[in-house]
Amino acid sequence: MKRIALIFLLCSLSIAVFAQSREIFENRLGQLEKDLSQMLPDSEPGASVIITHDNKVIFDKYYGLANLESGQKLNSGHVLGIASMSKQFTGMAVLFLVQEGKLKLDDDINQYFPELPLSGRKISVKQLLSHTSGLPELTQNDEFMNSIDQAHTVDQVIDLAFKGEFRGEPGEKYIYCNTGYTIIVALIEKLSKMDYAAFLKKKIFQPLKMKDTYACDFRNDAVNAVQRYLSDSAGFRKARIMHFSNLIGGGGVISNSRDMAKWEMALLSGKKLPQNYQKIWEPILLNSGKSTDYGLGLGISDFDGRKFYYHPGMGDGMNSIDLIFPDYDLTITVIRNVSKPKHSSNNISLLAAKYLLQND
After folding, report:
1. Residue 7 in this model has a pLDDT that exceeds 70
2. Quick one: how far is CA 84 from the chain centroid?
3. I want to staple 130 with a disulfide (CB 3.0 to 4.6 A). Which of 256, 284, 330, 359 is the partner?
4. Interaxial angle between packed helices 154-161 and 179-192, expressed in degrees from 0 to 180 and rounded to the nearest 10
């Protein structure tokens, strides 16, 4: 009888502790919502914030406007450009091909595209994905930037990129490079015999039921994405017109916070991903042996000693980030339709992390 009574007491204490923890968690989310409501005015460009914990959505809120001119409020049905947050999908696409035996991360890209003007450089697939290739940067090319409103094929984008100067030797240093991701798109299409957009849809978006997410290309622009804005001293103005085919591989995915939450929960569980999926956040080393703190489309950092994986997305009228805390089964995603806002996606996501991880 004493043993039964002890078991009953322990179970009762566990239930009480769980209920207390849940109440604390809910109180923190309530305070976060209150703060965000004050930070993000209804009359300004929007922000979507979603948080998952233990494979469940626990916070899903929308602030501000999808369109300033019409006054339309941002809601869960809207899709937005996520800019460089797109890179993680390109990295995972490569890992699918690796699992299928179609390439290796250490393969020299010359093996697949001997016509690339690399001046004798040997650049590996993983160097293209980890910003350690030393290639010219696409977005620093004036001809490219002046024609960003026009649709370009993958080959045309690559040709424009190589009009710039090399910025280092392969593996010498970490220097952010969108060009590598454009070349990776060409590689995915060559080996899969599928368009990049179709490959992502088949391998990632459809299996994870990311029904609102798609990749843009020469034939398909971001036709249903919300209006993008720039913030400056005079207020807000529309961002420049761009064709999202120019961002393919490194920034051309259109999505929303609910779909991104499905993706991030899959990253924590490995569900419907290749067996080697965790390589996406394994830090790549430089030739010197120093870590880049960047994997194959996700960065590695810590918040008050708590490890997380992440990728920001910044571009004309786009501001986004996702944080993934593997040890806490916690993900935070913020997507905004405005550049350089007073409260960036990065600041909002770290505020959420501060509330949810305090005294964990």
Report:
1. no
2. 6
3. 284
4. 150
Residue 236 tokens, joined: 């807000």
Which amino acid type is present at position 176?
Answer: Y
What is each CA distance from 320 to 57, 104, 335, 356, 358, in whole angstroms? Answer: 18, 31, 4, 20, 23
169: tokens are 């030797």
The pair phi, psi for residue 70, each rounded to 5°, is -95, -15
Residue 80 contacts residue 254 (beta carbons within 8 Å): yes
Residue-wise DSSP of 142-192:
HHHHHTTTS---HHHHHHHHTTS---S-TTT-----SHHHHHHHHHHHHHH
Q: How confident is the model at residue 138 (pLDDT cuts 50, 70, 90)?
A: very high
The mean per-residue pLDDT over the stretch 28-51 comes to 96
| β-strands 72-73, 330-336 pairing | unpaired
Domain 32-357: give its CATH superfamily: DD-peptidase/beta-lactamase superfamily (3.40.710.10)
CA 194 to the chain's CA centroid: 22
**Whole-prediction pTM value?**
0.93
How far does CA 69 lie from the centroid of its chain?
28
d(CA 341, CA 352): 17
Which backbone phi and psi does 124 adopt, to 5 degrees? Answer: -85, 165
Confidence check: pLDDT of 15 > 50:
no
pLDDT of residue 234 exceeding 90, the answer is: no
Spatial distance between the Cα atoms of 237 and 245, rounded to a whole number of angstroms: 23
> Judging by beta carbons within 10 Å of its beta carbon (0-12, 13-18, 19+), is residue 335 exposed, middle or buried?
buried
CA 321 to chain centre: 6
What is the pLDDT at residue 21?
A: 60
Residue 337 CB contacts under 8 Å (≥ 6 apart), including other chains: 45, 46, 66, 74, 80, 81, 226, 227, 228, 229, 317, 318, 319
**Tokens representing residue 115 in the block:** 């016509």
Q: Identify the CA nearest to 284 among candidates 100, 90, 91.
A: 91
